Amino acid sequence: MKAWQRPTVPEPIGAGVIPRIFDSKSQGLVEARPHGSTASLYVCGITPYDATHLGHAATYLAFDTLVRLWLDAGFEVRYAQNTTDVDDPLLERAARDGVDWRELAETQTDLFRRDMELLRIIPPDSYVAVTEVIPQIAESVLELLEHGIAYRVDDSGDVYFDSAANSAPWFLGQESNLGRDAMLAYSAERGGDPLRAGKRDPLDPLLWRGERAGEPAWQSVVGPGRPGWHIECSVIALRHLPAPVTVNGGGSDLLFPHHEFSAGHAAALTGHDLAGIYAHSGMVGYHGEKMSKSLGNLVFVSKLDAGGTDPAVIRLDLLTENYRSDWEWTEAHLNTAAARLAAWKAWASSATESADNSVDQLRSLLAQDLDTPAALAWLDARTASETTPTRSLVSAVDALLGIQLRAGDAI
Ligand code: 5CA
Ligand code: ZN
């Protein structure tokens, strides 16, 4: 399906730096260096309801910073993202509100696209809804059944992934580094069904859900039904990006089970790792809890926009925090960003054409695990000092941070 309009991104000035980023699998900072000249990125997209809250926005912005650093370093970027446009939480919300689930998914995806555009987030090259790839997912489930890496439970039509039957390079816990107890707890909390009778391992995840009365279902090579959650991302990533992808990303709530099993399914299908790096953004909170659909403590990008907040202020607000930290959003936080943007704009208005090597300082701060707080502090110091701004630095703020400081520059 179509993504959204790409913002203009100024051409790099001089040589960029290959970014380093924290890898959840190896538990350390690693260079996000692509094989060859193309960096590839898969980021888990929204389940389209309650979009777009500031937690979502912060996560897509974190990976946008990575994309911008790659572009700055001279790489081509191939980026794919899904929408989980059929899944239990979406169906439950549609039923609760008495709307058709397809209608809900469509309107919420439209809202998300608009919000991403407002925030000047670079769109994926492949934006793929799960309902667009149902036959392909079913083919992959069949392949896993034929290879003895998947099994059927009772006569429900449900198919599960056999975590233990899978062969190298993946093994259970490889991506998340979690012990069994933690995995069991997260599985129960995040869409798994460890108590389901008849499974070979309580942690084995659903690959295909057999048709149930009143639920959407598709005819397929594994029988009527719909896909499980993790296999959708494995299949979309494998079909749209060269494997292994340079970075597989999402929020830290996807560390387990989602990314563990997306990696597991992909390895079972190809014999290779899904990704070189598994990167996770922290959780944005509000009123003392993680901002989440189930709790309802949400602040929406569209509502802030409708209330007159400049989207650039929202963007700068989210860049204030380290992408890996869990942090609490407040109104005051937003006001600080508004003051900062005003100060930076005043500073940028007197930019000159003179030579400037300070862009390298900005890029090297960001290249160290997308350290936007350090970059912002450095720019604050620069705006507060008597140093005359240069056009190249102002342009780098646009290219790397997505913040346009001069009115009249291209949108
Ligand atoms: N559709 C699945 C991924 S395949 C999903 O998790 N959808 S979501 O709508 O629940 O979340 C979309 C993205 O936003 C995910 O990467 C998730 O980790 C991230 N996210 C959700 N809540 C927050 C939050 N409070 N702070 C930061 N990121 C969040
Ligand atoms: Zn996903």
Written description of the protein model:
With 411 residues, this protein is α/β, with parallel strands linked by helices. It folds into two domains: 34-290, 3-Layer(aba) Sandwich (Rossmann fold), CATH 3.40.50; 308-401, Up-down Bundle (Four Helix Bundle (Hemerythrin (Met), subunit A)). It has helices spanning 54-72, 88-97, 101-118, 134-146, 180-189, 229-240, 255-270, 301-306, 311-319, 331-348, 359-366, 372-384, 391-401; strands at residues 20-23, 28-31, 38-43, 76-83, 126-129, 150-153, 158-161, 206-210, 225-227, 245-251, 275-281, 284-286, 289-290, 327-328. Strands 5-4-3-10-11 form a five-stranded parallel sheet, with helices on both faces. It has a four-stranded antiparallel sheet with strand order 6-7-8-9. Helix 7 (255-270) links the parallel strand 10 and strand 11 (275-281). Helix 4 crosses helix 6. The chain is globular, with a radius of gyration of 22 Å. The chain starts with 19 loop residues before the first strand and ends in a 10-residue tail after the last helix. The model has no long low-confidence stretch (mean pLDDT 95). Residues 44-47, 55-56, 58-59, 82, 84, 233, 250-251, 253-254, 281, 283-284, 290-292 line the site of 5'-O-(N-(L-cysteinyl)-sulfamoyl)adenosine.
